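Internal ticket #5521
Category: modeling
Description: The requester needs a full-assembly model to guide mutagenesis choices. All entity lines are attached below as received. Residue total reported by intake: 586.
Assigned to: D.W.
Attached entities:
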Amino acid sequence: MTIREQNPEPNNPLGIDGIEFIEYATSQPQAFGSVLQSMGFIPIARHRSREVMLYRQGPMNLIVNAHPDALPRMSAPTETPELKAIALRVRDAAFAWRHSLDLGAWEMPTRASAMELNIPGIHGVGGSLIYFVDRYKDFSIYDVDFVPLPGSEARPLALAGLHYFGVVQTIRSDRTDDWREFYEQLFGFTVLPEGKFFGILPKGTLLESPCRKFYLQLIEPPPGSDDIVWDEGLLRIGLGAPDVRAAVRILKERGVVFIDRGAVQPSEKGALTQVYLGGVTFELVKSHLQP
Amino acid sequence: MNIENFGMDTITLAGPLEAKLRAVREGGFTQVMLSARDLVEHPQGEAAAIAAVRQSGLRVTGFQVLRDFEGLPGHLHAYKLDIAKAMLAMCGALGSEVLLVCSSTSTHASGDAEVLSRDLRKLATLAVPLGIRVAYEALSWGKHVSEFPKAWEIVAGADRANLGLALDSFHMLAARTGLDELDLVDPKKVFIVQLADFMWRELPSLEERINAARHFRVFPGEGVHGPEVAGLVRRLDDMGYRGDYSFEVFNDDFVQLPAHVVAARARQSVKWLTDQVSRRSLPIRKDRPRAKQSG
């Protein structure tokens, strides 16, 4: 069977359909959990065999992995939560994985235990992973591997209509083209025209997913920053809100602190939270997306 | 143009890795080209070799060499892909930003330019997460790609930002490739230039090329093609090439001399080349602005 036969959409070869979940790794899951709860995420289920918790808010699934070997071949999680994986909804996960490997992706070793789902994945930037998930409609991956927390609401509503808007990725100098081509070739992302930005941190290069449901932002180190440590990796998630000011107000009432100085202050376009637990921030972005 | 533009290659030197690195550094060089064997043959293992390189303070010009990669069918491709991944992993662990790939000599390899471009594109994609650029070199005895214009056609066809050319003066001289075709090459897509000369005017047969390439190369200024080598460097400089030059000198005599003696010859070669080239005023070299890898 050729790729073409299986994929009638030339611009979306994997049938990407949004973000299924975002995964953080940390050795301090309780501390991070309370930050997430102030951001409106509710813990709803626990993994059957690992120290892994599923949080949910409206359409967003967020996984906190505190397992000692949180991710294959990687070091134990650090105290500061690290953004470690993006799971993409795709038409056929096995096909998406095979297709990616054929084009030059690195295979991620499986980590499923007996009776657990094997979620195929590839290596992304830094130590991060990209998973492919095709069970997200009638049946979900969480039905197999997770046990619901007693008394928890399975589908908690989102605060202020929050939804995944995108992920910010740091890259080293002169690497924008390398990474742009990586996402173009493997997944069919496209670059937004220069000058088209969302939020209050307009810099770098914005890539739009082929499903047009989320964005990746590539950021090289700012000029004159030779003395700062600038590793490649996933930096933070952006949460879309139809009304950013309303979202900021609601989150502030829950104790979330937003940066309010210089160019970075909450506005109708966007807002940035303070740094939590030594390295985690969340960005709010005025969003046109329909989750 | 000065010694900062030039590096030595460990294949030119005798002795353990640490002694080679010391000779290169004490020879006044700031960069070194490494081979996979420098890592895997280290008596204390790869990690110790990598630590020695980091401790030397020398910048790694590049890591060599992936052979016979492109154009293979089916199971041969799958096998070679595993080799390529292992080479990339070593290159990344070493902190080298450039992996050298030389054109295939395999009789099993396709000559179809699209197939060759496709395979190199795949290799370039594999190299992206590791921060590595892939430099493709035309071996003068390559099966289908034996001169740089053909290598450039394959690289341009692949059209990946982190895939470019490695130019090697030995192969250009051996194949008598004209320099005019350099005008077709984007200087930003030349990732590394390797320099060497040899002692014979002509190398008409492939066997002679292979023999001279592996045993009888000399430093620029020591062979019979001095003006051509200097002309190549001048031409590249005129084009706007500001990347690294590495002396890739395979020589059976040099590997039975003390490393510092050979490093002194390399140093002399830098002087000879810069004298030849920089009689005209040359702009100060600017490093490609890539951040250093941390850790």
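Resolution: model delivered.
Comment from assignee: DSSP finds ten helices and ten strands in chain B.
Ticket closed.
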